[in-house]
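Thread: Modeling a multi-component assembly for a lab meeting

Hi all, long-time lurker, first post. My supervisor asked me to bring a structural picture of a complex we are working on to next week's group meeting, and I have zero experience with this. I have the sequence lines for every component (216 residues in total). Could someone generate the structure of the whole assembly? Inputs are pasted exactly as I received them:
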Amino acid sequence: MLSLQKTRSRDARPARLLPADFYARDPRAVSRDLLGKILIRRRARKTLSGRIVEVEAYLGENDAAAHAAAGLTPRNYVLFGPPGRAYVYFIYGNYFCLNVSCEPDGIAGGVLFRALEPLAGIEQMAQERGVALKPSHLAGLRLLTSGPGRLAQAFGVTRERDNDKDLTSSSSDLQIVDDGYRPARVSVGPRIGITKAAADPLRFIIAGNPFLSGRK
DNA sequence: TACATGATGCCCT
DNA sequence: GGGCATCATGTAG
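Re: Modeling a multi-component assembly
Sure thing. I ran the full set together rather than chain by chain. Output:
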């Protein structure tokens, strides 16, 4: 049986807000370095947070699977803009997906958040997801943030509310911070749910983490 | 447990 | 009008 909260930091080290230059790099490098960082949604009543355990890199206009491959459009302009901004898109008529823009301003690239390990605000996440939660039950917790559509819903992410939001601003209600945690082992494999460029190893995971997306 | 399928709406051609 | 960086549910084994 896997223990819960495998990645909860024991350190008292204060969390550091990731700056824009962290994202102003190749999405593959950003992806690897985002594993283990913490996504935070600050709300009036409660703060939600989750450890990043699975991401995918989407490259520029030469990546056939990337939205940027279509060239600059009203939908995907954030990918071409400054680094560290939220790119949110609507998919399959039901779900939003959250990305962060990479590369310097003018160059396209992004990272898709595919799975988090819930850390704080779990009751609120369950409410957003509309799931009845049995406390400390792993199968139930996995339903909250194990998948890109799920984590966006759990964190209340929408295109209207969050698209083009600056994740590197200290005044932002959506941020990514480093609390000093470092993954024991990172694995890389093919991206999920795509047909073009499907073989490229651009999916990055914390190996063995119980909150990865997909069936167990 | 594994796989197939329907729901659902926006964007781009 | 086709396709889509998904998820929940149903059915078969």
